[in-house]
Amino acid sequence: MQGMKRMLLPGALMIATTALAQKAPAKGPLPILDASVMYSAERIKTTGGDSAWLQGASGELAFPLYKNLGAAFNVTGEHNGNLGTDKGGFSKISFVAGPRYTVPLRRMRFYGEALLGTAHGFDATFPAINGASSSANAFAMQAGGGLDVDWKRHIAVRAIEASYVRTQFPNGASNVQHDLKLAAGIVFRIPIY
User: Fold this and answer.
1) How many CB atoms neighbour CB 141 within 10 A?
2) Beta-strand pair 32-45/131-152
3) Beta strand pairing call for 177-191 and 155-167
4) Closest Cα partner for 38 from 142, 135, 157?
5) Is the pLDDT of residue 1 over 80?
6) Are 91 and 52 in contact (CB under 8 A)?
7) Hey, what's the torsion of the CAs at 79, 82, 87, 90, to 10 degrees?
8) Considering the chain, what is the average pLDDT of its residues?
9) What sign does the dihedral 120-121-123-127 (CA atoms) show?
10) Element (H, E) at 22
11) Pick from 32-41, 47-56, 98-107: least confident
12) Using CA atoms, how far apart are residues 172 and 128, in angstroms rounded to an integer?
């Protein structure tokens, strides 16, 4: 019995040491998931050639893939209820994703991204072959960048995000829209273990 205890003790220590070694965090900083909530404003051209602002909110998730390269997923909802007396309003929800490159500096991060996806427009009139529709789906592209400034340990302020937004909603002419989107908000920085 005494010999059995002598054999079990080193075996148990070896198993415990191996388990602890597997749980030990890797050297260096942990990868961070950025979850942001932002106020969003997008300058659009109406079918009459006038300019107007859509206003709303964006939510975004971004996580690292390799070194400074990561991926970002963005959902934006915006609305303008009065584009003029004869034009009515316009609402849009977009879902885009793609690569993001981040340049970290002391207490701040610059990033650039190119996101592709889809947009759904509604509360408007979209010309079609067999009449008009009050909603439409379209290809969407968003390319731009921004600046995050650390505020607290796991919270940063998105000081500015500026993006070129291209959509392809039917409009009876070119069926292409070229817009400017500006956003700012709060970023929650969550360590990934």
Assistant:
1) 18
2) unpaired
3) antiparallel
4) 157
5) no
6) no
7) 10
8) 86
9) negative
10) helix 2-23
11) 47-56
12) 8
- Which amino acid, one-letter code, is at 71? A
pTM: 0.81
Instruction: Quote the tokens at residue 147.
Output: 């600046």
In a 13 Å sphere around the CA of 156, the CA atoms on its Cβ side amount to 22
- Tell me how far apart the terminal alpha carbons of the chain are, to the nearest angstrom: 42
Q: What is the rounded CA–CA span in Å between residue 165 and residue 176?
A: 10
Determine the Cα angle at 138 with ends 52 and 83, to 5°: 20
SS3 (DSSP) at 21:
helix
Q: Are 64 and 31 in contact (CB under 8 A)?
A: yes
pLDDT tens digits for 66-125? Answer: 999 999 999 999 999 887 656 678 999 999 999 999 999 999 999 999 999 999 999 888
Place of tokens 């003029």: 84
- The encoded tokens of residue 129 equal 């072959």
| Most confident among 20-24, 121-125, 138-142 (mean pLDDT) | 138-142
